[in-house]
Amino acid sequence: MRHYSEIITMDPQIRFGKPCIRGMRITVYDILSWFASGMSEREIIKDYPELNKEDLKAALSYAADKEHKVKITL
Q1: Which of 29, 22, 25, 39 shows the shortest CA–CA distance to 63?
Q2: Mean pLDDT, to the nearest integer, of 50-55?
Q3: Number of domains in the chain
Q4: For residues 27-46, b (16+ Cβ closer than 10 Å) or e, as one string?
Q5: Domain at 58, CATH number
Q6: How much is the pTM?
Q7: Does the residue 39 lie in any domain?
Q8: From the centroid of its chain, how far is CA 6?
Q9: Range of the structural domain that residue 9 is part of
């Protein structure tokens, strides 16, 4: 599997620079929301055939990496 940095793109001209999948208008947030709402990997790919399993895993890896880097200050 490729590193998520090869799949996740950020372009100020696309979705205001939010992290997207391969320059498409589908954001990491969109994918996380679909998973959170209970959609399966198969359902997401059926509804969005331009996506593949590697794209979905890249979105999850990106989110996990960002979460890991969050610093909490009290």
Answers
A1: 29
A2: 98
A3: 1
A4: bbebbeebbeeeeeeeebbe
A5: 1.10.10.10
A6: 0.87
A7: yes
A8: 12
A9: 4-68
